[in-house]
């Protein structure tokens, strides 16, 4: 397998970030980590916007042996870049042109366009909403929690079909792929958005089994220890996390207005 010469991941302990760190660890690729400090609005600084013009995480910079630099933003694009360039054995992917390859793309794009944005809004209204109007927050929570549940039902149904038709525990084909990792990063935050994983038995088993894989566990702890399950169940930790999120969202909003 070709290995990166100089690969840096710019990330934080958020769903989109751990999608990429788990992929890098599972493929056992060498890389450096640069933790982005949201509290300091580091993601808005000019140097970082040169890497990721959207001012979000994650992003990667890949410098080859000739010194050629490639910057990639957007977690879905990064996952595909990593597997296209560094996964010739298809440990986390499927051969280009195969049926499984296009199914993998379907679920990566489904997550990027659906589960991530909807669950992200559920998290915002439940944990970070700064509106003084309680009706606004209540509407947002109801709207996006319901949509997140619907999307998790789609995943539950997919896993049931995979088990019945392929005897597979994964979203695509017969082994773990970036389709699973794209969704895992978000499903692990289910309790944080007020959804109990026990509502979806197959999805609960799926996330527990994948998270227990040693290399995946290592990736979840990048750049800091993964503790969202503990935080979601501890009122004081949850209060602290919500306050921190509200603070940087407010700062970020003010900076973007300028």
Automatic annotation (TrEMBL):
It holds the Pfam family GST_N. SUPFAM superfamilies: GST C-terminal domain-like (SSF47616), Thioredoxin-like (SSF52833). InterPro entries: Glutathione-S-Trfase_C-like, Glutathione-S-Trfase_C_sf, Glutathione_S-Trfase, Glutathione_S-Trfase_N, GST_C, Thioredoxin-like_sf. Residues 4-90 form the GST N-terminal domain. Residues 97-235 form the GST C-terminal domain. Belongs to the GST superfamily. This is Glutathione S-transferase. The lineage of its organism: Eukaryota, Fungi, Dikarya, Ascomycota, Saccharomycotina.
């Amino acid at each position: 397998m070709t290995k990166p010469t100089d690969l840096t991941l710019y990330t934080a302990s958020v769903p989109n970030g751990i999608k990429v760190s788990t992929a890098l660890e599972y493929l056992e690729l060498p890389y450096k980590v640069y933790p982005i400090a949201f509290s300091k609005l580091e993601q808005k600084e000019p140097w970082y916007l040169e890497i990721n013009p959207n001012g979000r995480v994650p992003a990667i910079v890949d410098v080859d042996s000739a010194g050629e630099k490639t910057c990639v933003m957007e977690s879905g694009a990064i996952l595909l870049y990593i597997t296209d360039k560094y996964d010739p054995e298809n440990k986390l992917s499927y051969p280009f042109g195969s049926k499984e390859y296009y199914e993998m793309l379907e679920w990566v794009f489904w997550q990027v366009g659906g589960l991530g944005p909807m669950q992200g809004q559920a998290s915002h209204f439940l944990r970070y909403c700064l509106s003084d109007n309680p009706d606004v927050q209540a509407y947002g929570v109801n709207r996006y929690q319901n949509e997140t549940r619907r999307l998790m039902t789609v995943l539950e149904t997919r896993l049931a079909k995979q088990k019945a038709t392929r005897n597979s525990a994964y979203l695509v084909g017969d082994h773990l792929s970036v389709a699973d990792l794209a969704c895992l990063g978000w499903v692990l935050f289910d309790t944080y958005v007020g959804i109990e994983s026990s509502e979806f038995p197959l999805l609960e088993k799926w996330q527990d089994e994948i998270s227990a894989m040693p290399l995946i566990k290592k990736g979840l702890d990048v750049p800091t220890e993964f503790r969202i399950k503990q935080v979601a169940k501890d009122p004081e930790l949850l209060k602290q996390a919500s306050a921190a999120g509200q603070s940087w969202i407010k700062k970020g909003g003010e900076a973007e207005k300028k």
